[in-house]
């Protein structure tokens, strides 16, 4: 390298160091302001993780100011969010008012949030491990789009996760790693802040070797950033090898304790342990206490030269990278290395000492460049402006609207055919979509955790194929072995086959459901799994919805109705999960035509400005289909309920049913008409949508300026107040028990409150009181 270039590089590193100090300051001050200066009206600690921020500041400065390009996407370590917000403020993407209101209503969020923050958040983080895994599936989604020409080669970005080493205890990370290996993952960096401390204590020794072995076995390139430039230079001096060996073998807890105690403690311990190494003792003696402390703690993850060189090497290819960046938790703060520093906060005296040490002028704490000369300010502003990541003003894209199938088009797929199940109806609709030649069909992508066939997606996959960057022929087909599944595999495939890990399904749906804002290309993701196991991925489902990812989730089969499979496979509480999950409309149709209408509605909701994701709870039970006399039922299906059998004005009873138990409700209703000819039968397709609309209507006097009538209030107004309701659902009875509160009707709720067992439907429905006799008994109880 020419002398001029070397000098320029050194100058740039010096500027980056200066900038990194100011980012640390602004992050620390943001947390201090929230905890010590802002009025506390509830007496609760605000928090903010100053120590976790300090260990990540160098890495994030190198990443955002030099390595990142506009097309790259980052999942930020949750506890480093103040550093992220500080950097975004320097880029002009985060306001000072938001920083001042950190962790307050309307301020910068405690953890980066796509939906709650105003700055440039790519992936919400905070649920440990999930922000790591989503980058792998975002890379897969980018490959899917690139195979279709929707992302050009020069626009391919890296999907980057910044994570703490304690986060590597999360099992979902390794589930994602296995899936990434299957799909030949690329363009993904996971950067570990390896500070060897968790929330409670120091972590186990030598784990970095195990992590490296795991990731290398999965095909990743592992980069260990252990030593800083200053340390490497010291190790080259006489006695340096012995000093390096001491650090290599030092237990994590001892290293952390000495880091907290400082240079004098380092000298005392090293003098004792290296007593037989005269060159090493001379090397240690050559440093003043403060310099010795800095030498022992400035690890690779705090050295800009080391980090930037590693990032530059990694940028030469698209291989997945696993960086183990050695850091010190809380470096340069008064509690650096202390095992209790995770929730530590600097007091006013300590923050003042940091301000003075960094040269920030008192009273100008919110000015990140306070105290610098005019030339330094100009230089640092220029450095920020030249950062490749600063080029794009808006990285949150808007995708063009795609024409989706109408209700009538999808209804045609399930017309006729006698008895049908809702799961079979779903399969028929998907098979029909696969035959379409329009843009919508080309943007549908399906995925399932090894239950593609048993959830009725097989027909779609037969027609559209399996996605993989490397083509693979169907050997059974080539060898002329009969099989119902003819799955071609290649870049044109529209199904992503996953292993049997529900967390991966929901993280994949999160990534695919965010392609519109991340890449400017809308996909219509459809994911299927067995309803009993939706709870196994519930954290990841919540994570997907929190980011406003858009998809259609189909959970089938469900309930006690999955009779022979037994209690472990018979879902009970999933209707309540659907009701309680924000960002997700939950439906449980009973009939094939309801399923088709709801699928059309779900595809519309995926791209609506005020839309969300949709969850369909389906069944394998084939039942008789109703004759429709008009079109009004379609509106009721979407709104959550409609009268399948309207009540008479003087009705004393109404049966309310949801899902696969419609035959029992119809049987009981027919028998009830002999004594109660005015009885009604209400079909509920969504307790979730009904309940949310009802509670919103109750608030509307204050939120909308006038009291409005909800759908369920309007429907139940057809019944006299003294009438009774019997509700029936193959799930928790609480799903529908709230209906008695709408107008004060007396109510008996039937459903499941215990685990089921193997059996056939007549036996199980009778034992668990879900049959027509149970409904009639409940009706008699109300009348009595």
TrEMBL record:
GO-annotated molecular function: metal ion binding; pyruvate dehydrogenase (acetyl-transferring) activity
Q: Where is the Transketolase-like pyrimidine-binding domain?
A: 420-625
Q: Which Gene3D superfamilies match?
A: 3.40.50.920, 3.40.50.970
Where does the source fall among the domains of life?
Answer: Bacteria
Q: Which reaction does it catalyse?
A: N(6)-[(R)-lipoyl]-L-lysyl-[protein] + pyruvate + H(+) = N(6)-[(R)-S(8)-acetyldihydrolipoyl]-L-lysyl-[protein] + CO2
Q: Which residues make up the binding site for Mg(2+)?
A: 165, 195, 197
Please tell me which top-level EC class this enzyme sits in.
oxidoreductase
Enzyme Commission identifier(s)? 1.2.4.1
Q: Which UniProt keywords apply?
A: Magnesium, Metal-binding, Oxidoreductase, Pyruvate, Thiamine pyrophosphate
Q: What cofactor requirement does the entry state?
A: thiamine diphosphate; Mg(2+)
- Could you say which protein family the record assigns here? Belongs to the transketolase family.
* Stated role: Component of the pyruvate dehydrogenase (PDH) complex, that catalyzes the overall conversion of pyruvate to acetyl-CoA and CO(2).
Q: What is this protein called?
A: Pyruvate dehydrogenase E1 component
């Amino acid at each position: 390298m020419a002398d001029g270039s070397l000098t320029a590089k050194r100058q740039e590193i010096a500027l980056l160091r200066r900038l990194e100090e100011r980012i640390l300051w602004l992050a620390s001050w943001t947390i201090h302001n929230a905890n010590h200066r802002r009025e506390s009206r509830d007496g609760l600690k605000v928090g903010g993780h100053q120590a976790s921020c300090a260990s990540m500041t160098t890495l994030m400065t190198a990443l955002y100011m030099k390595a990142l390009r506009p097309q790259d996407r980052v999942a930020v370590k949750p506890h480093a969010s103040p550093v992220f917000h500080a950097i975004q403020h320097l880029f002009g993407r985060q306001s000072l008012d938001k920083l001042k209101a950190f962790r307050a209503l309307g301020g910068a969020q405690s953890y980066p949030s796509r939906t709650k923050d105003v700055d440039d958040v790519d992936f919400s983080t905070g649920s440990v491990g999930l922000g790591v895994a989503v980058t792998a599936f975002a890379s897969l989604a980018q490959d899917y789009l690139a195979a279709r020409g929707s992302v050009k080669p020069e626009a391919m970005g890296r999907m980057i996760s910044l994570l703490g080493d304690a986060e590597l205890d999360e099992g979902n990370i390794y589930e994602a790693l296995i899936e990434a290996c299957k799909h030949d993952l690329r363009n993904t960096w996971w950067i570990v802040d390896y500070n060897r401390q968790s929330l409670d204590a120091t972590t186990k020794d030598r784990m970095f070797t195990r992590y490296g072995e795991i990731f290398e076995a999965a095909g990743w390139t592992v980069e260990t950033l252990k030593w800083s430039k200053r340390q490497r230079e010291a190790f080259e001096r006489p006695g340096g090898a012995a000093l390096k060996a001491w650090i290599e073998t030092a237990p994590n807890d001892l290293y952390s304790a000495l880091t907290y105690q400082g240079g004098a403690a380092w000298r005392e311990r090293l003098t004792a342990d290296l007593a037989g190494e005269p060159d090493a003792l001379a090397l240690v003696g050559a440093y003043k206490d403060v310099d010795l402390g800095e030498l022992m703690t400035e690890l690779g993850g705090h050295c800009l030269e080391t980090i930037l060189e590693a990032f530059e090497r990694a940028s030469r290819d698209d291989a997945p990278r696993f960086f183990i960046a050695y850091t010190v938790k809380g470096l340069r703060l008064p509690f650096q290395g202390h095992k209790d520093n995770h929730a530590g906060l600097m007091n006013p005296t300590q923050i003042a000492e940091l301000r003075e040490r960094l040269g920030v002028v008192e009273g100008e704490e919110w000015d990140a460049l306070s105290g610098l000369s005019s030339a330094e300010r100009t230089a640092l502003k220029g450095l920020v402006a030249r950062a490749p990541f600063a080029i794009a003003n808006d990285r949150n894209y808007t995708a063009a609207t795609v024409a989706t199938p109408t209700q009538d088009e999808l209804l045609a797929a399930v017309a006729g055919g006698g008895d049908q199940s809702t799961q079979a109806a779903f399969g028929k609709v998907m098979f029909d979509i696969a035959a379409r030649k329009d843009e919508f069909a080309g943007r549908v992508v399906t995925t399932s955790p090894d239950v593609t066939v048993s959830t009725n997606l097989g027909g779609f996959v037969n027609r559209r194929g399996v996605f993989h960057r490397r083509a693979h022929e169907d050997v059974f087909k080539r060898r002329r072995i009969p099989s119902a599944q003819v799955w071609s595999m290649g870049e044109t495939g529209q199904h992503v086959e996953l292993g049997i890990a529900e967390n991966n399904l929901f993280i994949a749906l999160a990534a695919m459901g965010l392609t519109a804002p991340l890449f400017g290309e809308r996909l219509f993701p459809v994911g299927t799994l067995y309803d009993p196991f939706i709870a196994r991925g519930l954290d990841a489902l919540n994570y997907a919805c929190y980011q406003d990812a858009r998809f259609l989730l189909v959970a089938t089969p469900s309930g006690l109705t999955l009779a022979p499979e037994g209690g472990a496979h018979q879902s009970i509480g999933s209707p309540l999960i659907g009701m309680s999950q924000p960002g997700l409309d939950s439906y449980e149709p009973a009939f094939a035509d309801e399923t088709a209408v709801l699928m059309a509605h779900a595809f519309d909701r995926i791209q609506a400005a005020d839309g969300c994701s949709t969850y369909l709870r389906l069944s394998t039970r084939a039942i008789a289909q109703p004759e429709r006399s008009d079109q009004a039922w379609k509106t009721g299906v979407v709104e959550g309920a409609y009268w399948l059998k309207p009540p008479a004005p003087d009705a004393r009873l109404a049966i309310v049913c949801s899902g696969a138990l419609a035959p029992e409700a119809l049987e009981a209703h027919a028998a009830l008409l002999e004594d109660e000819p005015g009885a009604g039968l209400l079909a509920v397709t969504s307790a979730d949508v009904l309940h949310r609309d009802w509670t919103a209507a109750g608030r509307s006097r204050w939120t909308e300026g006038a009291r409005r009538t909800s759908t369920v209030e309007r429907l139940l107004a057809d019944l006299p107040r003294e009438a009774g309701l019997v509700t029936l659902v193959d799930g928790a009875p609480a799903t529908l028990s709230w209906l008695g509160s709408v107008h004060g009707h007396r109510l008996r709720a039937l459903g499941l409150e215990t685990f089921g067992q193997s059996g056939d439907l007549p036996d199980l429905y009778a034992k668990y009181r879900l049959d027509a006799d149970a409904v009639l008994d409940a009706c008699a109880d109300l009348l009595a």
